[in-house]
Write a structure and sequence with these properties.
The protein is mostly helical. It has helices at about 1-15, 20-40, 45-65, 70-90, 100-115, 120-125, 135-140, 140-170, 175-185, 185-200, 210-230. Helix content is about 75%, strand content about 0%. The model has no long low-confidence stretch (mean pLDDT about 85). The chain contains eleven helices and no strands. It has one domain. Helix 2 packs antiparallel against helix 3 (about 45-65) and helix 3 (about 45-65) runs antiparallel to helix 4. The radius of gyration is 30 Å and the shape is elongated.
Length: about 250
Amino acid sequence: MADQTADEAATREAFFAAFGGVRGMVETTVPGLVFVLTFTITRSINVSAAAALGLSVVLAVSRLVQRDTLKHAFGGVFGVAFGAVFAMISGDARNFYLPGMLYTLGLGVAYVVTALAGVPLLGLILGPVFRENLSWRTRNPGRKRAYTRASYVWGAILLAKSAITFPIYFWGDATQLGWLRVALGIPPFLLAVYVTWLILVKAPAPIDVIAEWEAREAASEEASANAAEDTPAPAPAEPAPDPATPGRAG
């Protein structure tokens, strides 16, 4: 029972880490918060963009120093950098949030489309986390159905988030959009993760294809070693007769 609880805790931790964890949520939310705060005070797009980008770089360097994954280290920097460039070039502070909004919209569509196509995006993301890779597609139909349902959940939440933010982008101002983006940063994410976890808990257990591969490799090596031990050593060859030996001539 203790081992099962420990395995479940480790799986939950890996599941949450796949989406960036608490630190990832903070790193995707705080730069936007810094931007809207700075813009509210200074009304300067350049100063606000520089402050948000500078903080994002500091967070990324911190990850690198701690030898954390590069995906999370540079993902936030690129997103903030694109937003900063868009805002400064266009002269519209709302465009700081446009790349992130387009990414959210595209990701929501991707979740729905891949679920409809029978290759749910969530399964592609979480398959390596649970060491099942793509085995859920052909060997674990219950698991595939769970990934499909969860992908629809993610798609619905992200598309709903886009439906709320894009009208403010077109008809609101930068301050309204900034605070709305901050408010809609963490709560929808936590909701999607929680519902996904509830769905997967009731699904069949993942097939650990990595363990299967390791077991086959170990069995193959053991069979090779046993075969080598069972193979008799070749008998030594008899020496060839010497023609010059007395009694063997002519």
